[in-house]
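Aim 2, interim progress: modelling of the magnesium ion-bound target.
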Amino acid sequence: MKIDNYKEMLELILDHSHEGVVLCDSQGKIRYFNRIYGETFKLSPESDVGKHITEIFPDARIPSVAQTGIPEFGVIYLWKGQKLVVNRIPVKERGKVIGVITQVLFRDVQELRELNEKVNFLQTKIISIGAEFRQYFQAKYTLDDIIGESDQVQQLKSQVIRHAQSSLPVLILGESGTGKELCAHALHHLSPRSKRAFMVINCAAIPKELMESELFGYEQGAFTGAAPKGRIGKLELVEGGTLFFDEIGDMPLEMQAKILRVIEEKEVTKVGGSKPVPVNFALIAASNRDIEDLVQKGGFRSDLYYRINTCVLKIPPLRERKEDILSIVQHLAFSSECNPTKKLIAFSDEVLQALWDHDWPGNIRELKNLVNFAVNNLGREERLVQLNHLPLSFLKARKESSLLNSPLPFKKAMLHHGKEIIQEALKATSGNKMAAARLLGISRSVLYEKLEK
Ligand SMILES: Nc1ncnc2c1ncn2[C@@H]1O[C@H](COP(=O)(O)OP(=O)(O)O)[C@@H](O)[C@H]1O
Ligand SMILES: [Mg+2]
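Predicted structure of the complex, ligand included:
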C-alpha cells in the first residue's frame, strides 16, 4: 500500500493538493514540483527538474527570496494574463537559506475574484444603506417649527442660529416639554452637519448596562448575549453628525467619565476591543434638571459640566411666556395628526381664557396633548374649539382655580400683543402695577414676571 510508505505518502499528498508547489535550491535550480504545478505550466519532472527557475519564468522572484531570506505571502503573480496568488517561503538551516518553497494558489484566484465581487457588492449596499440610514436619522424640525412671538422665543431662535455655526457643545436647559429636543433638531438642521446623521441618546431611558455598548459598540464575542459579529456604537456610527444626549443629568457617573474622554481625545475603543478608532461628532446635551445643583451634590461630574456648559440655551417655561399660547395653539391645531385635511381651526374666547389661566406644568407637550384632544373632538364640519371640546380633567382643574370675572378682551389681546398691552395698562393706571394687573385680569406676580422681562 502506498500509504504505508512515508515518501510515497508525501508524494500522494502533494500530488492531490490543489495548490502548485515547487522547491528550488538556494541557487534557484528546480528540485521538485508537484503534479498540478507541472500540469499547469506544462512541465515534466524528467526534462525540467534541474533547470534554473528563470529559464521557465524569466521574472521569477525565487532567487531574490533565496538571497534575502524574507518570505512573501499572498503576492499576485501575473502569468499569461492570469492573476495567481503566490507564497514564497525560504527554507533555512542554521540561519542559512538552503531553498525556497513556492506555493501557487490557482483555485483561490477564482475564489478571490468571487470574494472581491462580494466585497464590492457589500460596499455598494453599505453606501446605499448609509444614505437611507442618514435619512432616517435626520433632524425632523427646523427653526420655523419653533413657534412663538415672545421676546424669549425670538431671543432663543437667534441663539440657535448663532450656536449652530459653532463646533462647541451646546447645553439646552428647560423644564420638561418646553421644546429642548425641538431646539436640538433645529440646531443640527442649521449646522454645517445638517446632511449628516442626528442621533438621540436618551440617557434616562437606556439601562446603565446597555449604555456603554450602545455608545461605544463592542467587539465580536465581547460578552455573552452579544451579537456574534460585534456592533458599531453610535459614537462611531454618527460619522460627523450630531449626537443629542437627552436628559444628560441622568447619565451614570462612570459613563460621564468615559464620554468626557471621548470628547477630549476624539476616539473610542469598543467594549472588548483594544484599538481606538477616531470619531467626529457635534454634541448637544439637554436636561430638565439643575445640573449645577447636581454637580454640588456629586451626581454630575464637574469636569464634564464645565466641558459642556460653554453654549447654554435656557428655554423658559410656557407660563412665563403666555403670549405665545395663541400662535402655538393655532400651529398645533393646524399641524395636528387629528386634522388630516388641514382645516383652519379657531378657538373660542372662553377656551383662550382657560388656556391663559392654566399654569402649564407640562409646558408645550401638555398644550399639544390638549390641542390634539380638542381637535379630535371636533365634528366633521366644526372649526371652532369650544370649552366642551376640552378634556374634563382640564375643565375640572380650571373650576377649582380662580375663575375671576376678568376682562376677557384684554386677555385675548394679551395673547396677541403682550408687551404693548402691559405698557398700555401701566400708562392707563399711571404706573400703578396693582391696578394694571387688575385691569389686565392677571395676577400681580405674573405681571411682575412679565415686567422683569
Ligand atoms: N415653541 C414651540 N413651537 C411649537 N411646538 C413646540 C414648541 N416647543 C415645543 N414644541 C412641541 O412640544 C413637544 C415637546 O417638545 P420637546 O422638544 O420634546 O420638549 P422637551 O425635550 O423639552 O421635553 C414636541 O412635540 C414639540 O414639537
Ligand atoms: Mg425631551
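Confidence is low (pLDDT under 50) at residues 402-406. The chain has three domains: 2-105, 143-316, 319-452.
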